[in-house]
Design brief:
By secondary structure, the chain is of the alpha+beta class. It has twelve helices and 29 strands.
Amino acid sequence: MSSSPSFKLSPSRLLLALLAAGALGGAGVSAVQGLQAHAQAGPAALSAPAQAPLGAVSSPDFSQITERYGPAVVNISVLGTTQVSDDDDSEDAAAAAPGMPPGMAEFLRRFGQLGPQAGAGRSPRAQPQETPTRGQGSGFIVSEDGLILTNAHVVKGAKEVTVKLTDRREFRAKVLGADPRTDVAVIKVEAQHLPVVRMGRMADLKVGEWVLAIGSPFGFENTVTAGVVSAKGRSLPDDSAVPFIQTDVAINPGNSGGPLFNARGEVVGINSQIYSRTGGYQGVSFAIPIDLANRIREQIVATGHVEHARLGVVVQEVNQTLADSFKLDRPEGALVSRVEKNGPAERAGLQSGDVIRQVNGQKVVSSGDLPAIIALASPGDTVSLEVWRQGKAQSLSARLGKAGEKTAAADSDTDAASGASPAGKLGLALRPLQPQEHQQLGLADGLLVQTARGAAARAGVQSGDVLLAVNGTPVRSVEQVRAAVAPSDKSVALLIQRGEDRIFVPLRLG
């Protein structure tokens, strides 16, 4: 999107803005960083004895990478339309900031930064109208006959896409396909013998390694920025299945879809998102690994659409309290809080309370690692799982399904007892579910929380919650709860259902 560098977004909200890559050459990076390091170290550093370096380190020559592969980076202009009614206050949103360039109001609306204004004098029955919208982004050429990778959000709703090369040639592009889940899109221009980038591998990328971005921040074409890899396999709180590369490379609006190069001139990612309080760059940028982007590209070119694999579980993080409850040596893995009925995971024997520690030999450290690993697989693939269950490691095998595929609901067991009884060690008053409650909730097991005090209340358990399991063991009576809690002296993990959501709640005893 076109934007104004002088316009400031509201600081009251954190953005995971779907934007990407920005400016600055590599020549002055080392000097600036050196000055910053001396400034932070203070006077004491001047008198400290010199230490032996780990090795001679120098910044790469980014000018050679830019000269050789810069021509394969393109500027993408998008023309689309949006439905706006006469009483839609956001239509005149530009009035909120005099001098705001065309298209900026739509950019602000996309990320909730421009609220409604007073609509005095407007008819509430006005008919919607189509209003033109314009946007900008970046991309890079991956084949000599005109295949280009970019972000899905760059071409979303596009009616017309124009690609501009560094030699000033322009081409009308066709959107072959886009995958919103991974934010990868493939577009095509009719041309031959175009310059192309060279592909790298995520596995070869190291944290702390130099990286380079080329793109068009705020419409400034072919802008170069440099930085280092801050982290790999980063999960974001936006339901994304992408194991992002985090960098400190400066990226800004207008550079979405641009390439992230390593110091050898290989593309290792697609710059996609920033984390910002202002809407502009603040030192935290995210790129889609090129391995994942290439898998998406292959599917789009072959079929025009993308299919994602599905394991059929809901997972959560393992903190220290949960690790103690499940007798894990360290807080690692993906804790299964729900298993989809008749889904791939249930057919493989996975249970609520299992901790998935490895997939195909690849270690699962955080819960976000699991969807990222599954995202690289295809529907129908068979994966080997190492899970932790009841204090022991077990091996399972699961045949992955297709994301979005519906499964038949299983019948619920409606047997239940009646009456209420306290579970004093937890601070809970519990009673078995009634037959009609089993049917309404679709639960075979569980106890209704009547009151929560003490440790349970401090952990966030509420009246009306349904207790499904203790330390991974399903419960349907107060006696079963007491028996499950008795061996625990530090903590327990309670599987709670509230509405349609399930989560393990770590509860410290004593």
